[in-house]
Every structure is written in C-alpha cells, then in structure tokens.
Amino acid sequence: MTIATRQLISGWGRYPVANAVVVRPRGMSELALPAAGTLICRGQGRSYGDAAISNHGVVLLTEALNRVQCFDDATGLLVAEAGMTIGDILNEFVPRGWFPPVTPGTRHVSLGGAVAADVHGKNHHRDGTFGRHVSTLELILADGCRVRCGPAENPDLFWATVGGLGLTGIITQVALKFIPIETPYMVAEHFQAPDLEAAFRWLEDSGHDDHYTVAWIDCLSRGRHFGRSIVMRGHHAHRDDLPAGRTVPVSRSRRVPLALPFDFPSFFLNPLTIGVFNHLYFALQGRKRRPFLTGHDAFFYPLDAIGNWNRMYGKRGFLQYQVVIPERAAAAGVRAILERLVQSRRASFLAVLKRFGPANAGPLSFPAAVTRWRWTCR
Fold first, then answer.
1. Could you say which of 13, 247, 282, 329 has the lowest number of CB atoms within 10 Å?
2. Which H or E element spans position 292?
3. How far apart are CA 157 and CA 362, in angstroms?
4. Residue 378 — pLDDT band, cuts 50, 70, 90?
5. ω into residue 16 within 30 of 0, thus cis?
6. Beta strands 39-42 and 58-61: pairing type?
7. What are the extents of the domains in the chain?
8. CATH 3.30.365.10 fits 68-180, yes or no
9. Cα(210)–Cα(204) distance, rounded to whole angstroms?
C-alpha cells in the first residue's frame, strides 16, 4: 500500500522549493491515479527550475519502478520500466557491449525523465535527441487508460509526450534502441581556442568534428582572451585503439562519488574564485593536445564525480539558462550574451556551447539546427 507523505522537494538547482504531497509506489501494482486533483511524475529530480514539483497536487516518485522487461542482445532493444536510470543501464549493459544512443551530462536520469525532457547530449548534431531512439512508450492517461504509442502508433500522443515534461500522462514503460560498443573507453581530444572566434571556427570545421563534440567557455575572460574555450571531441574506442596490455573490463562501475558534507557559503562562488578555476581549467585541459583514452564516466559525466555538487552554490541554489540561437545569428548572439555576462561579473564555471541538428516532430522540441548556449548562475 502506497502511503502519501508531505516533504520539501526541488529540482537539482534547489530553487524553487515546493512543499509537496509525495507518493512512492514500490512496484507497478501500486501505481494509481489520485481520486481527485493533479499528479506529476518525478524521476531522479535532476531537472532544473520547477520541473516535476508541485505545491498543489501529488508528486509520484518512480525510483522503485526500475525493472527491465526484456532486452534483445541481437538488436540492442531494451524495454524497461520508466524509473530505470541511465546509471542502471550503464552498469548492466556496457559490460555486454551496448551504450545509450543519447545521454545527458549525468547518469542520474530516469528513462521516463529522459523522455519527458527529451534530453540531448554532445551528439545531437549527429544523432538527435533521446526521443528519436525510442520505439514505443506505455502511458497511463488522466482517465486511467493504459495506452501504447510510438512514431508509428498514436504518433501525436507520442510526440506530445516526448519533451512534454510529463503532462500527457504517467510514462510507465520505455522501449529504447542502444548502440553497440567494443570497449567502455572513449578516445577524446581537446583543442585550446584562444578566443570566441577560434572556438566557432573549431566547431564549424567538419574536419574537427567527432561523434561527440562540445565546447567549454570561460565566461569571465576579457580582452584578447574573450570567449576562450576548450573544444572537446570524442568517440567510443574500438579494441584496436587500446594500447598493448590494456584489457576490456567486464565488471560494473563501482566508483563512489565524493560527497560534499555541507552547503558552501553564498560568497564562495564569486568572480575571483571562479576566475581562478577557469584559468586553471583552461590551462590544464588545454594540455591534452593529443588523443587520449578515458572512461565513459569521465567523458560524459565529470560532475557526477561529486555526488551533490549543487551544494557548492549554497542554500539559495542556482538557475541554469539554456538559449537556442539560429545558426545565422549564432556568433553575434553568443557574443552579445557573453559580453553581458562579462560586464555584469555574473560568474559561472559551467558554460557550454554545442551545435544542434534538426528538430524532431515534437511540438515542444527544444533543439533545432542551431547553436545552443548554456550557463548556470546563482
């Protein structure tokens, strides 16, 4: 029997905070709609802003709804309950030679949440968003009916759900097609761009593109170093890429993240401290001028090494802004935003620039064939 409790919840940015009625079913048999009022599902709580929180209705936690229904080792098709996380998938299927086709910047995202947010990764310009690789969904609608949908079956419902932030119903099951890999390693390469123009040249040069490509930007640099960046690219390593004697591990990841024991004081992240961090990061990452092997955790999820890194922003939390800029105006648009950030001294150590590919068929598709600019601030 599922018991409702009241607790304070928020997104990963810890702002805003809601005093919510929360239910946590232990299995699909306990999954039910409330007799009255509204309901929103919540996976791992890694969204920013006010996604998957409510002061007025019920918040349904899907953490325990995380079972594998079936997996086809020949085609890489997984059917699983929506509470299963990217981390669960990596632990279970990377040793078997399979990897999610799209992954965001954290392992701690549920399948249902990945569909609801239609997450994208460093390969959107090549492979699109998460929803592009989903073949079917199962939903419980507001009237209690269970419905299957996909690109070829109830497509309007499917594309409204992909990127629909959980507003079309409860996602109970997701069928997702994986990509095959030969090793759990990545071949990565970094390029030091001395200014914003150089960063754009790197990103626009197809000769420097790879399966996964992204740029980190120093939001505080001025003058001739304005917009200096580290452009990072990589792809899944083949067995032939491994040095002699390097074997392919078959065990699951047992990495235990460092946990911050307290909230940092509000003054900790300021232009001075972040300026020092940005200077060191640019120098250290820029030294990696030759292709190198790294694990998929370090390549895709560097912040997961600090289990609760959001505490660095203090008790007030933070906001993350994501801006999509049409390609024809991308350089001028990013420059204008960056100039305002530099002038205001709104320090951010997490600022990312990506290229997008075409939008999908969803009415709420965020990505398009444009440049995306993302940064976080308190």
1. 247
2. strand 292-295
3. 10
4. very low
5. yes
6. parallel
7. 5-61, 68-180, 185-377
8. no
9. 12
**Number of helices (H), then strands (E), in the chain:** 8, 18
Distance CA 71, CA 224 (A): 53
DSSP 165-201: TT-S-EEEEEEEE-EE-S-SEEEEEEEEESSHHHHHH
Residues 353 and 337: their CA atoms lie apart, in Å, by 12
- Please write the tens of the pLDDT for every residue from 284-330: 998 887 999 999 999 999 999 998 999 999 999 998 888 888 888 88
Token reading at 368 = 């398009």
Query: What backbone torsions phi and psi does residue 331 show, to the nearest 5 degrees?
Result: -60, -45
End-to-end CA distance of the chain: 40
For 93-143, how does the pLDDT look when each residue is reduced to its tens digit (9 = 90+)? 999 999 999 999 999 999 999 999 999 999 999 999 999 999 999 999 999
Query: Which pLDDT does position 370 carry in this prediction?
Result: 65
Nearest of 362, 368, 347 to residue 132 by alpha carbon: 362
State how far the alpha carbon of 354 is from the alpha carbons of 115, 205, 209, 319, 338, in Å: 20, 13, 11, 19, 15
**Bridge-partner residues for 274, per DSSP?**
none
Give the count of alpha carbons within 13 A of 138, CB side only. Answer: 14
Q: Is-contact 18 9, C-beta < 8 A?
A: yes
Q: How far apart are CA 342 and CA 225, in angstroms?
A: 12
Judge whether 7 and 20 are in contact, CB under 8 Å. yes
Who wins on pLDDT, 373 or 245?
245
- By residue count, the chain amounts to 378
* Contact (Cβ atoms closer than 8 angstroms) between residue 373 and residue 327: no
- As a whole number of angstroms, the distance between CA 327 and CA 138 comes to 36
